[in-house]
């Protein structure tokens, strides 16, 4: 929906998720003001009075999710959420505009459920990250947000001001895998999400996750998941 005027104070019996596709403003919850900007998500728990004050014309996509799992999400503004979550909100909006039917409802349930699972995963990782050594925490944050860039261990270590060998040791000691393996897994996880919830061509998905060579991407994908990207997409779409 378009947002160009303050939204009155209201509440819901479900958890409300709002993706800000365009614009900026403030979320007001319990008289506290939380600024948001384009690309961010806000969470308003059930029965919590809240309102929205846009600072400029914007576009929002709102989703209501019920269930105990959704009530565990932390409220207010979520920063640094993956682009795939925003793309899934857009896909939800596209599905809503389609013809009614059981298949449409199943798709809506699948998409909203996936958003919930991803936000829960982010929340768990934030909790786990709080106890990590600073170099590991910083390295993982870089890999999580810049996986689409050309990154190698030396450059990563230089940004954190430690040696590559020390970073590799700390990373594996705390997370059970090397930075390179973590980066590959992150790229393929995002690729799986894009294959499932978007219609982007495989070549474009490869580029978006930092693997410019689509042939290498397809070989790596099949080696790790046992099927090609196209086979993976077809399997997910038919399930």
Task: Please tell me about this protein's structure.
By secondary structure, the chain is α+β, with helices and mostly antiparallel strands. The protein contains ten helices and nine strands. A hairpin with a 2-residue loop joins strand 4 and strand 5 (32-36). Helix 2 (83-96) packs parallel to helix 7 (179-197). The longest helix is centred in the middle third of the chain and has 28 residues, at 102-129.
Short characterization:
This protein has 239 residues and is of the alpha+beta class.
Topology summary:
Layout: E1 2-3, E2 7-10, E3 15-22, E4 25-29, E5 32-36, E6 41-44, E7 50-54, E8 58-65, H1 68-71, E9 76-78, H2 83-96, H3 102-129, H4 134-145, H5 153-160, H6 164-175, H7 179-197, H8 202-208, H9 214-225, H10 229-238
Antiparallel strand pairs: 1-8, 2-7, 3-6, 3-8, 4-5, 4-7, 6-9
Helix pairs in contact: 2-3, 2-7, 4-7, 7-10
List the keywords:
239 residues; alpha+beta; Jelly Rolls; Arc Repressor Mutant, subunit A; 2 domains; five-stranded antiparallel sheet; four-stranded antiparallel sheet; 10 helices; 9 strands
Mean pLDDT: 86
Rg estimate, integer Å:
20 Å
* Number of helical stretches of at least 4 residues: 10
Termini gap? 30 Å
CATH superfamily of the largest domain: Homeodomain-like
Largest sheet strand order:
1-8-3-6-9
What is the CATH first-level class name of the largest domain? Mainly Alpha
What is the CATH topology descriptor of the largest domain? Arc Repressor Mutant, subunit A
Give me the secondary-structure category: alpha+beta
Q: Which range best describes the helical content: under 10%, 10-25%, 25-40%, 40-55%, 55-70% or over 70%?
A: 40-55%
The stretches of 5 or more residues where confidence is low (pLDDT under 50) are: none
Shape: globular
Number of domains: 2
Largest sheet: 5 strands, antiparallel
- How much of the sequence is in beta strands? 15-25%
What's the architecture of the largest domain in CATH terms?
Answer: Orthogonal Bundle
Helix/strand order, N-terminal first:
EEEEEEEEHEHHHHHHHHH
User: How many β-strand runs?
Assistant: 9
Pfam families: AraC_binding, HTH_18
InterPro entries: AraC-bd (IPR003313), Homeodomain-like_sf (IPR009057), HTH_AraC (IPR018060), HTH_AraC-typ_CS (IPR018062), RmlC-like_jellyroll (IPR014710), RmlC_Cupin_sf (IPR011051), Tscrpt_reg_AraC-type_HTH (IPR020449)
Protein name: Helix-turn-helix domain-containing protein
GO molecular function: DNA-binding transcription factor activity; sequence-specific DNA binding
């Amino acid at each position: 929906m378009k947002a160009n005027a303050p939204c009155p104070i209201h509440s819901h019996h479900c958890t409300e998720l709002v993706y800000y596709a365009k614009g900026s403003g403030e979320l007001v919850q319990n008289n506290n003001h939380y600024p948001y900007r384009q690309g961010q998500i806000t969470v308003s728990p059930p029965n919590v009075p809240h309102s929205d004050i846009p600072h400029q014309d914007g576009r929002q996509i709102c989703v209501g999710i019920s269930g105990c799992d959704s009530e565990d999400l932390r409220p207010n503004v979520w920063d640094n959420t993956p682009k795939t979550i925003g793309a899934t909100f857009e896909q939800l909006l596209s599905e809503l505009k389609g013809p009614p039917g059981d298949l449409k409802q199943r798709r809506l349930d699948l998409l909203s459920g996936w958003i919930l699972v991803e936000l829960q995963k982010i929340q768990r990782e934030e909790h786990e990250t709080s106890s990590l050594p600073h170099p590991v925490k910083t390295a993982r944050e870089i890999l999580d947000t810049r996986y689409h860039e050309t990154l190698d261990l030396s450059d990563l270590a230089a940004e954190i001001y430690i040696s590559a060998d020390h970073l590799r040791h700390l990373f594996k000691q705390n997370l059970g895998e090397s930075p390179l393996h973590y980066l590959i897994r992150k790229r393929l996880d995002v690729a799986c999400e894009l294959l499932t919830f978007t219609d982007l061509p495989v070549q474009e998905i490869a580029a978006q996750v930092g693997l410019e060579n689509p042939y290498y991407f397809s070989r790596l994908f099949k080696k790790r998941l046992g099927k090609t990207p196209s086979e993976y997409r077809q399997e997910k779409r038919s399930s």
